[in-house]
Each structure stands twice: as C-alpha cells, then as structure tokens.
Amino acid sequence: MWLYIAFFLSVSPLVCNLFTIPEPSPSPGEQYNPKLLYLNSIDKAIDYVDSIYYYSNNPQTFDTAIYVAVLSNFMRERFFHGPLNYRFSENWIAFLSGKIIWSHLSSIVVSNDILKHAHSICSQQNIVFMEILQRKKINFRSVGIGTEAVAGHYLCEVYYQGKWHLHDVNVEPKWERIKNSNESMAWYQQNKDSLYLVYDDLIPKIRLEPMLHDIAYGQVSILPAKNMRLFQSVTKFLTYLIPLLILLLIVKIRFKQKTGSQNIPNNSSQDLNSVFRKYQICTRCVMDTSDIAITFNAAGECNHCIEYLEKRINFKYNKGQSELKLNQLLSEIKASGKGKQFDVLVGLSGGLDSSYVAYLCKKLDLRVLAVHVDNGWNSKDSVQNIINITQKLNIAYDSYVLDWEEFKDVQLAFLKASVPEAETPSDIALLAALHHVANKYDIKYLISGGNLATEGILPKHWHYDAKDGKYFSAIYHKFGTQKLKKFPFFGFATEAYYKLVKKIKIIYLLNYVNYVKEEVTQTLKKEIDWHSYGQKHHESIYTKFIQSYYLFNKFGIDYRRATFSSRICTGDMKREDALLQLKTLPYDENKIQSDIEYVCKKLGIKTNEFHEIMKQPVKWYSDYPNNEKKLKFIYDMYRKIFKKEKLGNF
Questions:
Q1: Which of 22, 399, 533, 541 has its CA 20 to 30 A from that of 240?
Q2: In whole angstroms, what separates CA 612 from the centre of its chain?
Q3: 569-606: pLDDT as tens digits
Q4: HEC states along 395-447?
C-alpha cells in the first residue's frame, strides 16, 4: 500500500500540469509582447533573433553592436517584470526546498525554464540574455548593484567596439535621453547624473544612488549561479524520475505476484502561439513568414528549402537510378499480386497527380483498382476525369461514399475550431477508406499521387498530422454535434495495424519518374481528354475553397507558396515566375461570393455564420490537446528500427 501512496504523491505534481495556472499581468508601460511566448527555449529565441538581425543586415559580416541591440529589444518584448519561482507542478523538489530551506532554491535560473514563462525578475532575464550572448560567442559579464541592506538590481555589460557597454533588459531605461547611451558602468560611476536621467521614473535617484556604492562584476563570459543551475536541473529530472522508478518497482512486485502490472498515460503537449514579426521571404524559394515557425539562415534561405535540398532531394527522380529502383519495385508488386484480382490500388480524385498515377500504372502493365472516396464535394470536371480515366484506360473502379451528415458535421467542427486543417476530415477519411478497400481485396500496395516534386515542402502549421487522433477528438468533442458511427477514422493505431499486420505499403510512384507538371498535363489531355482545374487539389470544390479563400483570408496562407517552392527546389519552376503568379489572388474575385454561398448552403449554415467563423481568433494545432510528442517518439523509433529516412514533418 505504501508504494501506491508514494506513487500517488510523486505523480501528483505532474497531474497539476493538466490545469492552467494564470500568469500575472504586466505593468503599464512595459514593452511585453504576448505573441512571442511561443519562443520557449534558447534555441527558438536564437533562431528568432537571428532572423530579425539578418533580415536587415549583411549576412557576410556580423555587427556585434547591432545584434546586441536586436537581442535587447527582443528581451524587453519577450518578458515583463515579476518574481518567478518553480511551481509545484514544474519542479516539486525545488518548490518545497524554496518553502522549507531557502527561498532562492525555487527561484528559476535555468534559461529554458525561464522561457516557459512570460514574467521574470532582472537576474532571470539577464541569465537568458547572457546565455544567448554566450552561444553567439559575444563576451559579457554580469553587473550587480546594491547590497542585502539596500535592495539591488542586476544588469549586464557586453563587450564590443573595443569596450564594455551596459545593458538593462529588465527595467528598460530611457537611453534616448542622453548622448552617451550604453556606456560602461565604470563610465556612469564617473557620470552618475546621466544614469539618474535614464532611470528617472523607473528607479528613483534616492534608491539608485546607494545601489551604486556597491558594484559586483561577474566573470567574463561565464554564466552565474552554476551550482543553483545544477541543483535545479537535477531536481527537475528527479521530479519525473522518482514516479517512474516507483512505478517500475510496483510493476516488478505485481509481476512477481503474477497479478499484472500498472501503467500510466503520458499526457503532454506543447503550445506554440503565433508571433508577429517583420515580413521576410526566402531568397531561394517563395516561402515566407506566413508560416509562423519559419526560420532563415544568414543568407536569407528558409529552413524548408534547406531541408528539402539537404534530405528530400535525394529521394526525387534521378535518371538511371530511379529506373532501376522502379523496375525492382514493379517486380515486388507483381509478385505480391500473383493469384489475386489486382496488383495495386490507386486513390483517384480526378486531379493531376492521381490521374497520372493511374495512367502510369496502366502503362506499366499493372492491374489497377481505382477507388474514389466521395465526400460530396466533387466538381463536374473531376467526375468527368474519373470517367475518362477508368473507361479509356479500362481500369476497374470502386466508389467509397461517405455518410454526408456525419462528414458535414466533422467539417463544420474543424471550421469552427479556427485551425488551418479544415480539410483534415477528408485526409482521414481518404486514408481509412483506401486501406479498408485494399484490405478487402487483399491488395498490398497503395499507389499515392503524393510526390516530392510538388509536395516536398509543406509547413507543419499549415497542415498538422491528420493521424493525431487526440487532436481530432479534441476538436470534434468541442465543436461537433453528433455521435460518429459511420465516419471512417484513421489514427496511428489503425495505421500500425495496416502497415505492420496487414503489410499494406504506400508507394509514391511519381518520385520514381521525371514528373514535370506541364508535360504531364499535356499528355493526359491528349491521351484521356483530361480537364485542368488551374491549381493543385482544386478538383474538389471544398478543397479549392479552403486552400484559395479560407486559408488566405483567415490565416494569410497562400497555399501556392508551398507548391511553387517545391517546384523551384526541383528546378521545375523559376522563382521569378512564382513571384509573378503570387501577385495575383489565389481565388476569382468575380466568383468568390457565389462560392461562399454554395459552400454555406451545402454545409447547412448561413453566410453570416460563416463570416463570424472567419472573424474568430486564429488557432493552431498547438492550441488544442494533441499527441505531437508521443507520435514524434513513435515515428522516430519506427524510422530507427526500420532504417527509414524522415521526409516529412512527423
């Protein structure tokens, strides 16, 4: 019994994390910007400050003075002043130590933990400031003024331009009031009136003057509070380790007693809030700060095209090698299809990618079953394209029709949630339906139209993992109105079942061929009288509406940027041509009103209800419960075990 009590007590602080504790409010006059709260680690903070600095400065040179000014401004916007101590739920050992032994033991000095909060005191803000300087190899030293008898203050000096410069990222002195701003503390000791002037209305002269009688300098480029940081790091680790050890002991005892074992869920999520930042566009592709998590290197190149050209480019078409891999794949597919009705299943939407996949499979002498998942939003052209493809190429066809009332309710729930993933319901249903039909016909290969040529770049915050069941359930539980009975759900467990038990594989055939959009379009028009829609995924009326109007007007997301950037990286499109196209609206202004009315009528809502949805505050996947960390761990382990390369965001 005592073990269960000990476990309950040790895990109770972690359970407290499930409850939101309100932060204090900033004082009037502080420059605090709550939109920067998503920068909750030193690495994220450095990436952000770097992107701001390099946006307006030569990446070939580094001006320490300008960088420190940018960093100082960031610090003033990132925090507001307020005492910060570990909460019981964050580090219960440090929390109790601070209550029982010495109050300073619970005062946070670990930079990443300080950045989990909006407020902190002068010493804590300077710890973050100094660690960033240390990472950037900029010399600094702490400056403490005051004594125990006289309430003190904590500042920092930074070395550049051949001398020390004083910075106070906490109190925000009015340096513009004097000519000699940011001089050294030694200089201000000789010119105290200047210091009194910049701190006027912030720290009264009657308080500041006695502080200046006792000044302590820290070691150059050495972070303060080494022992305290070690204590807090160890105790935080123990906060999670102790309940785990007790749990393992319980399991061991129960196992010995042959009465089973216990386990606990891991409910952890990480919020990421949108951040207002200066506009910046990649110098190589056309991705920009409409992706709230985008970062740029010194040359102004974004993380998306850098990752694409470093990793994903190796998996696109490579003349000679790709043909060899394709022939080997075809042999495996045909071997698996022996004695069966079909070799492969192709999900057919009538769009360019899936149409060409079906065409290509037929040309490769594969026995194809084309399956169309009908979610009620087919355009006339998509229907005609499906008819032309299946009839002219003599391809077997099956249709999987979704229950409209349930599906409509799920789509409305995601719209009301105000997240970019308004089309996640379609993605989930598509995966579930195709795997269901493949299993029905014992088909081991699903041929997808997904490809690196046009889909290699897609930010996570534009389209989060559709297989996160916790995220789906959280949104539908809050905004849905029905009990889902027929909606085909597809989460991680379902994926694992089909992949590992049923051995069904998804093959991205277009990565094995030289896929050039314009050439493929002409081929399909000539061979099967294929009808073009203008943009990717516009074969669906709803997808077209979401990607061209909803995302653009609610989130500032132009979905064309991702497609164009992928094509630029593959050499299939010139950046100048992409920029020219992006100057136009992604939707037809003359038709959009009728499109809105059509979508609203089909969803069963009034247009004013839709406009109210458009006005609601923007949300991201991180604003709702999700399993991002859990899924990341699972997928990373899967890739490690099966030696797979990570090509997506998940």
A1: 22
A2: 26
A3: 988 899 999 999 999 999 999 999 999 999 999 999 99
A4: CEEEEEECCHHHHHHHHHHHHHCCCCCCCHHHHHHHHHHHHHHHHHCCCCEEE
Q: Model-level pTM? A: 0.58
DSSP 8-state symbol, 22: P
268 has pLDDT over 80: no
Q: How many other β-carbons are positioned within 10 Å of the β-carbon of residue 297?
A: 16
Q: How many residues does the chain have?
A: 650
C-beta separation of 598 from 246 below 8 A:
no
pLDDT for position 29: 77
Tokens of 127: 């710890």
Radius of gyration of the chain (CA): 29
Strand partners of residue 81? 120
Token pair in block for residue 641: 């075990």
Whole-number Å distance between alpha carbons of 82 and 121 = 5
Dump strand ranges (E) for 184-235: 215-217
- Check pLDDT > 80 for residue 535: no
Is the distance from CB of 334 to CB of 366 less than 8 angstroms?
yes
* Spatial separation of the C-alpha atoms in residues 307 and 317, rounded to whole Å: 17
Amino acid of residue 632? K
Closest CA to 462 of 228, 257, 289: 289
Buried b / exposed e along 213-244 (16+ C-beta atoms within 10 A): eebeebeeeebbbeebbebbbebbebbeebbe
Q: Which residue from 166, 273, 271, 163 is spatially nearest to 212, judged by alpha carbons?
A: 166
Are 649 and 621 in contact, with CB atoms under 8 Å apart?
A: no
Q: Which two tokens stand for residue 579?
A: 């920029």
Question: Does residue 138 contact residue 167 with C-beta atoms inside 8 Å?
Answer: no
Q: What is the percent of the chain where pLDDT is above 70? A: 90
Only one residue has tokens 């089309």, namely 423
Q: Are strands 445-448 and 505-508 parallel, antiparallel or unpaired?
A: parallel
Q: CA neighbours within 13 Å on the CB side: how many for 534?
A: 15
Joined together, the tokens standing for residue 161 give 């331009």
Percent composition of the chain: helix, strand, coil (DSSP 3-state, to 5): 50, 10, 40
Please say if the pLDDT value at position 273 is more than 50: no
Rounded CA-CA distance 300/598 in Å is 42
Joined together, the tokens standing for residue 612 give: 């109210």
Task: In whole angstroms, give the CA distance from residue 512 to residue 322.
Answer: 5
d(CA 395, CA 619) in angstroms, rounded, equals: 43
98 has pLDDT over 70: yes
Beta-bridge mates of residue 394: none
For all residues of the chain together, what is the average pLDDT? 88
Question: From CA 479, how far away is CA 466, in angstroms rounded?
Answer: 17
Rounded (10°) CA dihedral 355, 361, 365, 367? -90
Structure tokens at 580: 């020219």
